[in-house]
From TrEMBL:
InterPro entries: Acyl_CoA_acyltransferase, Bact_Acetyltransf, GNAT_dom. Pfam families: Acetyltransf_1. Keywords: Acyltransferase, Transferase. It comes from the Bacteria. This is GNAT family N-acetyltransferase. Coiled coil: none annotated. The lineage of its organism: Bacteria, Bacillati, Actinomycetota, Actinomycetes, Kitasatosporales. Residues 20-171 form the N-acetyltransferase domain. One of its GO terms (molecular function) is acyltransferase activity, transferring groups other than amino-acyl groups.
Length: 171
């Protein structure tokens, strides 16, 4: 568990009601942002429901993954997920903080908590991907010591790939 004066980060089941609600908020935001940028429209509600149902987050369950929920002053505020890709590499995913709570240090705490979870799972390296329009995410990862790498997947929505050694944590 990670804490600050107003933030608490804890592992939660991927299918807990709080986790599902935050996943819906995350997916709605990143999907709408993509479609508004590329097609000038929000996500179709039927498409949104289909994609939310298809991406349950089961890969974030132990023993090979963890889902962290951040609470700000006790209220659900954000998430970060980590899943093992192979024996030494974990992938960071679902990093999200509700818009009204951004800028208060929660995203960095969630990422640091995910790094700790990855180490506990035996990973010595963390990788992630993100999109070009998610400039805040790219800035956060760079600030936390992640460097851009060659692509490590063929995700059609990924434009940038990052990696970081977890051996030396310079908090």
């Amino acid at each position: 568990m990670t804490t600050s004066p107003t933030w608490t980060i804890t592992a939660e089941p991927f299918d807990a009601p709080v986790a599902r609600a935050l996943w819906r908020a995350y997916y709605t935001e990143v999907s709408d942002r993509y479609y508004l940028l590329h097609e000038g429209r929000r996500t179709d509600p039927v498409e949104l429901e289909r994609e939310i149902a298809a991406r349950t987050g089961a890969e974030l369950a132990p023993p090979g993954g963890r889902l962290l929920v951040g609470r700000y002053s006790g209220e659900p505020a954000g998430t970060a997920g980590v899943r093992l890709r192979d024996a030494g590499t974990a992938e960071l995913t679902r990093v999200f903080v509700r818009a009204e709570l951004r800028g208060r240090g929660g995203a960095a705490l969630l990422v640091r908590g995910a790094e700790d979870a990855a180490r506990a799972l035996g990973a010595g390296r963390m990788i992630l991907d993100t999109r070009g329009d998610l400039v805040e995410a790219r800035a956060l990862y760079a600030r936390l010591g992640y460097t851009e790498t060659e692509p490590h997947n063929a995700d059609p929505y990924a434009d940038h790939w990052f990696g970081k050694s977890l051996g030396q944590d310079l908090r």
